[in-house]
Amino acid sequence: MARIAVCPGSFDPVTYGHLDIIQRGAKVFDEVYVTVLNNSSKDSLFTVEERLELIKEVTTHIPNVKVDTFQGLLADYARNINADAIIRGLRAVSDFEYEMQITSMNRLLNEKVETFFIMTNNQYSFLSSSIVKEVAKYNGDISELVPERVRTALLAKFQKPEKTK
């Protein structure tokens, strides 16, 4: 039986930190569903469709990664695809308390799925999509934070229309 994991997130946009977790999870599990959630409590820069496309483009080199989206409860999504595990990245101790609450709830809703935490690579421990968007908005160099395709998409989002004479 294939070992299936879900790697959920908003991925707005996907960063090298996300890719680090995805690649490492793909070494452990037979299939990894990178699953974009539409978090209504966050203002997203990219549409769900745009995020799906960016993730597909930057994960083409990982053959056992599938890209999907869902609305609703992660525990239900995991059950629907017969997932054994949820992969979550941890950047710092501050992430742990929040993640522990989510893990406990997912366990209550679906006792068949386990959550695996992967500590992010130290070079990405400060990295978040929010920071990347903020730096990109003010024309800062984000080339070491996101793949080139994502950098291009961010720059396009923040381009100011030229003034007409």
Describe this protein's structure.
There is one protein chain. With 165 residues, the chain is of the alpha/beta class. It has a single domain (4-158), classed as Rossmann fold. The protein is 41% helix and 19% strand. It is built from six helices and five strands. The protein has a five-stranded parallel beta sheet, sandwiched between helices. α1 (16-28) links the parallel β1 and β2 (31-37). The longest helix is centred in the middle third of the chain and has 17 residues, at 93-109. The chain is globular. The termini are far apart. The mean pLDDT is 92.
Outline the secondary-structure elements.
Blueprint: E1 4-9, H1 16-28, E2 31-37, H2 48-58, E3 65-70, H3 74-80, E4 85-90, H4 93-109, E5 114-119, H5 129-137, H6 148-158
Parallel strand pairs: 1-2, 1-4, 2-3, 4-5
Binding site for ATP: 10-11, 18, 89-91, 99, 124-130
InterPro entries: Cyt_trans-like (IPR004821), PPAT (IPR001980), Rossmann-like_a/b/a_fold (IPR014729)
Protein name: Phosphopantetheine adenylyltransferase
SSE ordering = EHEHEHEHEHH
Helix run count: 6
Average pLDDT confidence is 92
Strand content: 15-25%
Q: In one word, what is the shape?
A: globular
CATH architect. name: 3-Layer(aba) Sandwich
The span between the termini is 65 Å
How much helix, percentage-wise, in residues?
40-55%
* CATH-defined fold name: Rossmann fold
Largest sheet: 5 strands, parallel
Overall structural class, as computed from helix and strand content, comes to alpha/beta
Contiguous runs where pLDDT drops below 50 for at least 5 residues: none
In CATH, what is the homologous superfamily? HUPs
How large, in whole angstroms, is the Cα Rg?
16 Å
CATH class: Alpha Beta
Strand order of the largest sheet: 3-2-1-4-5
Give me the count of strands: 5
Number of domains: 1
